[in-house]
Structures are given as structure tokens and as C-alpha cells.
Write a structure and sequence with these properties.
Nucleotidyltransferase, domain 5; 19% strand; 352 residues; HIV Type 1 Reverse Transcriptase, Chain A, domain 1; alpha+beta
Length: 352
């Protein structure tokens, strides 16, 4: 889990979205209709400031944007489970009434629960991305317009109350995790349960200690390995990188030349984190080699500290393929610089 720490989000600032080259903006299919205008529910004076703060936060996060359409839908506030924080709820009954309904349905919960029977351990992840995982197409955003103290706004991402949001979200998560279904997980909308091995039916040898780590049972190690695979799939959709030139007088000023990302196949996406990082560097240099040949003052910024150690000690790498990538990387003349993941721009080209 330490290797996959960047795949976990703890607040709205760390929440991401699905990549648009895999999941393009959603068109809202509607039948012929007349625009609707609904009077908004008045905001109680006691929570007015808090509601304004929530709306500003969503505008800054890119969830809301200005609108000048002829549609107006209601919205209101409810308390969250903690009984203190507020949640904005969009009343989209008029939109749902004219929407062509998606025919997809999530799996039956009882069938998922049966998978956990006769298991020694289990687990579940909740996708923080929520229904903000995909954007609404520009042509459909006016349908979600609503009135606020900051003027008319409209939704940029899929709203929770829209009739097709649940099946679309479930299909997206299933698409990402389909290589791990059903032997590791059976996703249910934004919940990703982990189905551990049946330790009572596959033999007592799984109850023994792991050969390379006597302090952990084998079935526990396999379970944690499955969790790591799921988190890595939700975190990465490929390798992201960009090429830029620094200003001679002020190196902080950069002139960008190339932005790119490389998708991973089923085998590559199962690489361990160190192997994936070194492979990503290899693929990025190979893709940009025509622009880098002969460059003597090349600086490569990465967000993984251990890449430098792997390049300096290629003999200790246990894999012949890793050694081959290292040899190819070292044919370039460069200075390696570590940049924390929070400030590393190319991650936005590769993560969800």
C-alpha cells in the first residue's frame, strides 16, 4: 500500500477524473421538449454562508461553470451522515422526465455477498471520484443549469441525481477492472470489493507462511497483492510525459513542446510499481528520442525516488527486461531530478 499511496484520496483536492481519451464527455440523450424554469428553494439564513462556501469550492474544483441558458432546475441542501456537513442536491426531475433511459443495471448485491462466503479475509474500496468521474458534453450542460447567489451556473460533470449516472458510472468502473473480474473483484458502482482466495477449499498450503516472508500467511500476502493490483489499475491508465525547454535567464519559465501519454496493455499494467516507473521512463525516452538525440543538458524530472538507485545499480535488478530498459535509458545524457508527486505535472496525463 505504501507503493500505491498516490492512488488514495482523502479529500476533494486529491480527487481525480477518468481520462477523456478513454472516457469522452457524456451526451445527455433527450426527447423533444420545452425548456423548464423552476423557482429555487430559499436558502435558510443560518446556513447561507456555508452554502456559498460550498458553491465557491465546487466552482474552483471545476464542477460548476457559468451558464446563460433558458433552463433552471431546483437544488437544496441536506445533512451528510456526520450530521454536520452539508451536501448540495440537484433536483433533476424535469431532466429525468425527458431523458432517454440507459438500459444498464448494476449486479445483484446478494450475488456479490455470496462470493465472500467461506473466506478468511476480505476488503472493499470506495472510489472517491464519485459521479464527478466524467464530464458532460458541452452541448448538454445547459440542461443542468440552476440559479445560485453567484448567478446562473451549470454542471460540468455527471450529476448524482441524473437517471443515467449510475449505470454509466458502473460501466466505466467495470471497463477499467474487467481483467480482474471475477477472480479478484466484482465492482458495484463506486464500491470495489476484493474477493479473497477460498483458503478452506484450495488446500492448507495457503495457510502456511510465505516462503520469502515467514511473518505473513500466504493467503494474506495474496490478498494484499490483489488490492495493490486494483489500486494500480484505478490509478494508472498509462504513462504520461511532456517535453519542454527552460528559459536561459529564468529556468522556472518553460516552453512546452510535446505532451503525450502511452497506454499499457494487460501484461504491462500488472507490473510492480518500481518496474512500472522504470518502464515508463524507458517508453517516454523512446517516444521522444528523435527530439533528444545530441542533447547534452537534458534534465529528467520523475516523482519516484528509487529510479535513481535502479539506474546506478543495474546489476542488482533481478529481471533481464529491467536491465535491458536501463541500458537503453543510459544511452541518453541527462540529469535525474526528483519532484514530489503533488507537483509532478505529467501525472495528470496518466492518472485517473
Amino acid at each position: 500500500m505504501c507503493k500505491q499511496h498516490e492512488g488514495f484520496a482523502w479529500d476533494d483536492t486529491e480527487r481525480g477524473r477518468f481520462r477523456q481519451d478513454f472516457f469522452p464527455p457524456v451526451e445527455i440523450p433527450v426527447i423533444e421538449h420545452k425548456p423548464w424554469v423552476q423557482r429555487n428553494i430559499p436558502i435558510p439564513p443560518g446556513i447561507f454562508d456555508e452554502v456559498c462556501r460550498i458553491i465557491r469550492k465546487k466552482i474552483e474544483a471545476g464542477v460548476y461553470e457559468p451558464s446563460n441558458s433558458s433552463y433552471r432546475s431546483r437544488w437544496f441542501c441536506v445533512l451528510k451522515k456526520d450530521g454536520k456537513a452539508l451536501r448540495l442536491v440537484h433536483s433533476l426531475e424535469p431532466l429525468n422526465a425527458v431523458t432517454i433511459q440507459h438500459s444498464g443495471v448494476p449486479p445483484i448485491p446478494e450475488h456479490i455477498a455470496e462470493k465472500f462466503g467461506n473466506r478468511a479475509c476480505g476488503g472493499m474500496l470506495d472510489l472517491y471520484v464519485g459521479y464527478d468521474e466524467r464530464e458532460i458534453a458541452e452541448s448538454s450542460r445547459d440542461l443542468t443549469s440552476f440559479q445560485t447567489p453567484y448567478g446562473a451556473l451549470r454542471l460540468v460533470t455527471l450529476p448524482m441525481g441524473w437517471t443515467n449516472a449510475v449505470p454509466i458510472f458502473h460501466d466505466d468502473v467495470t471497463y477499467i477492472l474487467q481483467p480482474e473480474i471475477p477472480h479478484i473483484t466484482i465492482p458495484y458502482i463506486d464500491d470495489v470489493p476484493f474477493v479473497p482466495r477460498d483458503t478452506l477449499r484450495t488446500g492448507r498450503w495457503r495457510l502456511r507462511s510465505h516462503p520469502t516472508n515467514p511473518g505473513i500467511r500466504r493467503f494474506v500476502w495474496e490478498h494484499m497483492h490483489s488490492i495493490s493490483r486494483i489500486v494500480q489499475r484505478m490509478r494508472y491508465c498509462g504513462v504520461g510525459f511532456h517535453l519542454c525547454q527552460c528559459d536561459l535567464e529564468n529556468p522556472r519559465i518553460r516552453y512546452y513542446n510535446r505532451f503525450s501519454s502511452i497506454t499499457l496493455n494487460d501484461r504491462e499494467s500488472r507490473f510492480s510499481q518500481p518496474k512500472l516507473e522504470i518502464y515508463g521512463l524507458f517508453r517516454a525516452l523512446r517516444a521522444l528520442r528523435l527530439y533528444l538525440i545530441g542533447v547534452r543538458n537534458l534534465v529528467i524530472e520523475v516523482d519516484a525516488r528509487y529510479i535513481k538507485g535502479m539506474l546506478q545499480n543495474p546489476d542488482i535488478a533481478p529481471s533481464a527486461s529491467i536491465n535491458r530498459w536501463i541500458v537503453a535509458i543510459l544511452t541518453f545524457h541527462f540529469t535525474l531530478v526528483h519532484v514530489p508527486g503533488t507537483n509532478h505535472g505529467p501525472d495528470g496525463l496518466a492518472e485517473t
